[in-house]
Here is the input.
Amino acid sequence: MSEQATEKSFGTTAVHAAKHDEYSSMPIYMAATSIVCRKILTVCVYKNKRGISMKSLRQASRAKIYIGLILMALCYASHVLAQTPCQITLATAFNLHSKVLDEERTIVVALPAEYEDSDAHYPVLYLLDGMQNIWHVVGSTEVLTRTGHMPPVIIVGIKSVNRIRDFTPSSVKEIPYSGGGGKFLEFISSELMPYIDSNYRTHPYRILEGHSLGGVFTANTLMERTDLFNAYIVMSPAFWWNKEEMAQKAKTFFEAHSTLNKSLYFSIGTEDGMGMRNELTRFVEVIQQHQPEDLRWEHREMDGEGHMSAPLLTNYFGLKFVFADMQLPEQLWSAYDNAAFLAHETKIMDKYGKAAKQSGENYVTLALGLMKEKNYDEAITVFKRNVEAYPLYPPNYAWLADAYEQNKDYAKALETYQQALERSMKTNYGQEEKYTSYIERLKEFLEDKD
Here is the structure.
């Protein structure tokens, strides 16, 4: 940290945890997985006889793997709860002096779980009302990252001091302190962003997220400093501000931008009242009228949610929308091609950083389908990417080794089974005997072959 910042731990909770590379209770996980997955497949095969598509079976196969991973996590949790207590830190808060605002501002930073063990650079999510929203945003990003719907990101929350002053783009005579949004944006662009980029491994991709008056600030930032962010999540915006100033401003902005390579997500709860819902709709209608090229946008209402509850779902679905291109194209599932697969993986890593990846269930489901069709070269490509993305999990090496063996590359199969054995021993995975038997079998085969 620089001399400008003082740091403290934020949101820590004492829990029982073990080292990240320790695993146990795997026999329980495998037995439970077997029972659950048999039930899933029984139901899906029955449904398929009644006309359900093969796509449904593929989804069921994904569910099989995902439930297995969940059960593994539960069993792992039962193991770590018996270990030495330690701290799990949600985020770190520090004070940053702003010359622009002439005050100290509290910043809350949440890093990806693997940050300290990686040299990757990460997209940054700038979060308004950061102290209030950090709790649910960290949880949602963890789930979405773990399931391959978004890359790991650095979350930078800005604690609110005076929302009227900082978030409003114009001064309204009847509302004291209003109109300081320009200075607050200058603080973010000229002081906070450089500080974050200097002290953390950031990727150029940036997102701005704001709620209510923060939603006004977020939309106004798009129109005032279009270069600053790649994506915007606007939650329950107070677009009534200054006689719907944002909708009027949008007419000029979108008319002047026939091309706009941005992602915009707007959402509001149905219980927020017709006034705010209609004001948002009128803003969105301006976008519909102009439809800039390359602009991705979505407007959604959250059924049964109010002004203060909608942000949870808006953040979750907003991030899924922003990073929707992370997902494997449907064509790869129906007509797999090695070059297209590798091009997709390269594209998401170039766009979002090298830590971007699919969920393990997607890689494994795709590769096992290729194995079933005896497309071993293609399966090897997918399994290799899976190992690269998830290097700690022993079965990832065993699946790859099996693909090598089926492809008659016995030397690579032997080498990869040895890697599976090493990781099984290191993580107490419990499959050392099985992997050893595969290794001995291949050694004997290669000796006889010589």
